[in-house]
Amino acid sequence: MIGELGHYALILALVLTVFQGVLPMAGASRGERSWMAAGRTLAVLNALLLTGSFAALAWSFYVSDFSMLNVARNSNSLLPWYYKVAASWGSHEGSILFWALTLSWWGGMVAVLGRRLPEDTMARVLSVMGLVLFGIVAFMVMTSNPFLRIFPPAAEGSDLNPLLQDPGMVFHPPLLYMGYVGFSVPFAFSIAALIGGKLDVAWARWMRPWTTGAWVLLTLGISLGSYWSYYELGWGGWWFWDPVENSSFMPWLTGTALMHSLAVTEKRGCFKIWTVLLAIITFSLSLLGTFLVRSGILTSVHAFATDPERGVFILAFLIIVIGLSFLLFAWRAPTVGLGGNFSMVSRESMLLVNNVLLIVAMSAVLLGTMYPLFLDALGAGKISVGPPYFDSVFGPIMLPMLFLIGIAPFARWKEADPAQLARRLAVVFALSVVLAIPVPLLMGRWSHWVFIGIIMALWITFTALENIRERGRNMKGSAAARLASHPRAFYGMHIAHIGIAVFVVGVALVKGYEAERDVRMYPGDTVTVADYTFRFDGVKDERGPNYMSSMGEFMLSKGGRELGILNPEKRSYYSTRSMPMTESAIRHSITGDVYVSLGEPTKDNGWIVRVYSKPFVTWIWWGTLLMALGGVLAMLDRRYRSGSSRRAAAKGEE
Amino acid sequence: MASAGTKRLALIVAAAAVLGAGIYLVLSAFNENLVFFYSPLQVERGEAPQGRTFRMGGMVEEGSVKRLEDGVTVSFKITDTGASIPTQYKGVLPDLFKEGKGVVAQGKLDANGVFVAKEVLAKHDENYMPPEAEAAVKQAHKEMAAKKLSGGEKK
Which residues of B touch A353 (CB under 8 A)? Predict the structure, then answer.
């Protein structure tokens, strides 16, 4: 019964999204105010309907209603309740419903929070979002109904893939999807602006917090996925350049570019066309990512069920959305106007270089991800492009960008004086270089890449602090009062940039100094990796809620001092007995992790064991958290609230 | 003072140079790091490169998995039912590595024709067969069938 209600809500939403897609847009072009106003009601209604629909699915999972095909296939009565609920977005059908749900939420939020938007802009934005939503809901109703029943009902569910039974499953997909889908908002704003022909400072200002919000969620989603794969897959890798990872990383790169080009559009009124194009590209890449992951083209941890019919539908949808957007862009962009001029050394030019580098980086990822797929589709052979390609490309592309992060906040808009910049920052740069020298020496082995990475991290951090100090220099009042007077967006920017520095430290040190050993161990044996000694104390059997576990015991010590016991596991789940699962055991610390996982038992009572030392690896995720925190601060800046947008619109500039 | 025109030209030239360098870097890295896929039958015929990393896929031959003396190196054979290639891998195998199941490995051929794998690609689902491995087996079946047919005609 609950399932039928969910299905009914979905079909009702299908009908209402047509109205949301057509009515407000038509109203905006004909000047019918009541039609335009209907858009907001419809957007909220659709958000409620899809919430109801998803709640019905989640409830069916919660109560283990095995008369529903989706539940029977992806859940099990023995699962803890939170994994039951999380399983509702673990399947293909459920995840698409979740995608639609988040899209409807973003639409609803625009309708509720954007009350000050001009009514025609609001109408067009909601229409565009309604049309995209219609496509996704139609996809679900036609090819991927999550509410199918089976008769007779299954006695027991066939279980959620054990790999997904992890806290990561509860948070990673929702965050990632909300970020992915959140880029539909700047996309809709851009399409609306192209249709309405109005691309001014106010437009950029409205769009900025939404873009930043989507970016924050995507950042968190990606980094959580990275952390999950780090501890779950048992190989201690935090990024594999797997096509699925890449497909979430590409919109992140262009989304980052979009945030920066929006800054220029808002402050200086230029880069307008570029901003619009970036918004379209970013959302197109989000759709492409969904297509890659959900069509079954890629086989990975993220794509279990595959169905060619679905692939064709999503591909068609992709072509329609992206094709129409670019067509509209080509047609309308020349009317937008170019905006102000700027000189060769200025904050604009530096942000332009940032954008170009981010786009080159994205293209490099796109090439490495799509080229093998193309070749395969053409029947021209099977190839793969591995991490060495991405690693060797990414360093050189990112290096000038890291350097520019330090300078750009000091550069004036319109025209900056390079000699003055050099004078101001030479000392900071020299200090970064000098202080970076001891780091690789202390780590025990010289490495150019580590050295350069640390220079950049220090450079970004010092310039950020210097920039904050300098901004307060000509102000009156106590130091604390001066610090408190800077806008939140200013701090947001610097915190996010320092986050990049922290991230770079983690990447450089873990790439430079990680150590790994695979050994056969018998109880009582010890193995040493990077000053850490592991003593193997045997394996005992443990029982979990829906699995049996062989739990190893390792005493970890360093320099004769015992640090604690690590318990890696080898689990076998009842429902999929033939699929063992490795659960690694990790000891975290600020200077690095030690990591141990069990391989397999040998015939003579020994175990194959893998141990790692991962110096400073957690800095990678602390860095991404700081980036997200910076984004949140920037979103909360006062100027996005309380009428200041309207004043800006009236004034026409900052 | 340079005119606005020359300035703009300089900007465009500089941008084009940077972009060109970037594209060159990307494409050359791409070329160096492409990894091709060969089936065991192709490897047996000597089509796979010596000294370059490639991927090979098929099934783990039944009864072929052995641990060597050091306890950490595993030797097994990858077969596409047409040919089977001795393979070695040092380290912890993925959870779903099993005799008779599909496998894809990445590595190089050594002088004795043993495929030394640096990486055995993991699978995430017990019912999942790597598409490369499946294609290799299918192709081998096809060639075997064709051989039988042509052999029959000669008689």
Answer: 18
Low-confidence ranges of chain A (pLDDT < 50): 300-301, 303-305, 644-654
CA–CA separation, A506 and A514 (whole Å):
11
- Answer yes or no: do A367 and B106 touch at CB < 8 A: no
Distance CA A399, CA A397 (A): 6
Query: Domain ranges in chain B?
Result: 1-34, 36-154
Region of residue A643 (left: phi > 0; alpha: psi -120 to 50; beta: else): left
B33·A392 Cβ contact <8 A: yes
The domain segmentation of chain A, as residue ranges, is 1-165, 397-513, 516-615
User: Which among B27, B54, B72, B80 is the top mutation candidate for probing chain A, defined by the most A β-carbons within 10 Å of its own β-carbon?
Assistant: B72
Tens-place pLDDT, residues A286-300: 998 887 877 666 654
B36-154: which CATH topology? OB fold (Dihydrolipoamide Acetyltransferase, E2P) (2.40.50)
Distance from CA of A52 to the nearest CA of B (A): 32
Q: For residue A181, give the amino acid letter.
A: V
pLDDT by residue (tens digit) across B40-73? 999 999 888 888 889 888 889 999 998 888 878 9
Sort residue A592 into left (φ over 0), alpha (ψ -120 to 50) or beta: left
- Chain A residues in contact with B18 by the CB 8 A cut-off are 353, 356
Tokens, residue A456: 């950049």
Beta strands per DSSP E along chain B: 34-38, 54-60, 66-67, 73-79, 84-90, 102-109, 115-120
A465 HSE (CA, 13 A, CB side): 9
Q: Flag whether the ipTM exceeds 0.90.
A: no
Global pTM reads 0.91
- Would the CB atoms of B124 and A163 count as touching at under 8 Å? yes
